[in-house]
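Q: What changes when zinc ion is included in the input?
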Amino acid sequence: MELAEPAHSKLDVHFRIGRIPGRVHWSFWLFAALLGIVNPHASLVTVSLWIAAVFTSIVAHELGHALAAQAYGMAPRIVLYGMGGVAVYRPVRKSWISRVVIAAAGPGAGFLLAGLIVVCGVAMGYAVRLDPFDFRVGSGTLIDGRMGLFVRDMLFVNVFWGLLNLLPIQPLDGGNITATILARTNPQRALERSFQISMYVSLAVMATMLVIFNSVFMTVMFAALAYSSYNTLTQIKGSY
Ligand SMILES: [Zn+2]
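A: The predicted holo structure follows.
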């Protein structure tokens, strides 16, 4: 995602992967824990495994953006906060293709990581069952115990969140890609049109999450995205 990053604090955790520095804001641990706790079968073990899976997956996602940005000669850094993260870089190159590649590299890295897990599972003799709401790599059922839970969480976050992130919704990566592509044919109206698409798609996904999946969390999240798109749209129209 491309969002403004939160202020530095004493609770920040710092790390470095190669030449890419990373910072974890305290809000990241809070949101990850909250998402783990809402599970009706939550325990200290399941929540800890969930936080570890979310952390690894979001780092992989942002690393995807950052490595792509680095390949284009930029000096990126990663910040994890709230429900996700951001790869911050100076837009040295602004070609539309570089923007699309950098945006797609985030979910791409997640799919790659999920693919690696599945390949390793199969190589170790486990059967693979892929169900978008219950990913499992297991011999008949699951890899046993904690490792099985971790694998399931990893596949869920990397594949399911990765796919959602590619929807043409602002400020998700898919919304970013949509705006970039629209700007090629109509630069003046691209932002407005991308937020229109974003609002309608958010409403459609919201209705689907409510009616078909009965997911309160997802419904609220896409309602918030629809409202935020609506808000930005009114601001854009007011600026003409
Ligand atoms: Zn992203």
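Observations recorded in class: Strands lie at 13-17, 20-24, 77-81, 84-88, 127-129, 136-138.
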